[in-house]
Amino acid sequence: MLGEYRISGSRAADIAADIEAAVGSGALKPGQVLPPMRELAGELGVNPNTVAAAYRTLRERGVIETAGRRGSRVRPRPSTTAREQVVVEAPPGVRDVGKGNPDPALLPSLADALAAAAERAARRPTLYGDAALTEEFASAVRTAFDADGIPAGPVAATAGSLDAIERLLAAHLRPGDAVAIEDPGWGSLLDLVPALGLRTVPVALDDDGPLPEATERALAAGARALVVTDRAQNPTGAAVSAARAAELREVLARYPRVLLIEDDHGHGIVDLPLHPLAGVTEHWALVRSAAKAYGPDLRVAALTGDAESVDRLSGRLRLGPGWVSHLLQDALVHLWRTGAVDAGAVAAAYAARRDPLLAALAERGVVAHGRSGMNVWVPVPDETSAVARLVAAGWAVAPGARFRLRSGPAVRATVSGLAAEDLGPLADALAAAATPGAARRYV
Fold this sequence. Notes:
This protein is α/β, with parallel strands linked by helices. Helices cover 40% and strands 14% of the residues. It is built from 15 helices and 15 strands. An eight-stranded mixed sheet has the order 4-11-10-9-8-5-6-7, sandwiched between helices. Strand 8 (225-229), helix 9 (242-253) and strand 9 form a beta-alpha-beta unit. The longest helix has 21 residues, at 343-363.
């Protein structure tokens, strides 16, 4: 079953450490089936409960997964191998369009905002025991959420979207629970879920967001949480339309106990309206990160949700970092109030690069995707050869493997750093590697 490798250890911690080290070194391969607990217990001369505890630890760390009677196996992509490591390093002379970063020229200067925050701190220092949110931040966030039709609820702040999503999942789910996630989807989230000991259930999508029938299947199969990207979905650029939102709300209404998490990281860089799903289920949250519009290093995300979810998240936050820096909260409020980012202008700037690239690909017989945001998703027949051909043509893209569970092969190109004269050559290179007439669903 394990080839030449022999698991060792007499305590649960030792057995788990041995297996995890073997996975990390490659001695145990992704997908490899582990011995049944009683069989391994007999080989090691330990109680079956000891092996069960070791396997439980490995599941919680995202190293293995258990599929009922089919037993336990090494995850296809263990959490010890982050998807962010699946990268193409651009050699000299090759343009890198795979990093997924915003255009620095479209980010506002933080100098005045940080100076204003420092001046406030000098007048009114933040001390232990102060409220987690400043009054100005909480008011500005709630006003913005109200303007977008997001249901009433308390607000909180975290160190980015992924921090919020992790805390929400941990607050409601337990190891072994299933989470429905867009496929293709955000690579960091696809890493996070198994690292929490949770199971990923892929949900297919198209340019209008998650497909209702795929969402229904995932929830009917027992997924206890659903994560949806409202706009500028990474990597496809999908954005939930009004019609799709209505369909998804109908599905969610049949599963009121499912935790719904909406990621609106595209706020500030898109001009498409938000069509929130929130308020249908008992537990929900909508998260907005400042990273794409104001800079990745401004580690602040604002969120709202049902009272219980926000209370659980805030309580756990208090036991760790305590709060998100008031300096950063004040800086962000300053940026909002001074109109430092014109979302319409930023969205237009990205569209002026993205839409012509999509049109150029269509002229070359390639159906690509990028309804909003800064990325273009291009289905290809084989990722390895496509990436190699693109590098040879002078372009380093992101391999689709970073973003996929069961969906078909593809590559992602980020348009942030492109100029008009780049679009034709990049389209030529992508078309040479892509499948003409690729399906409009990412399956």
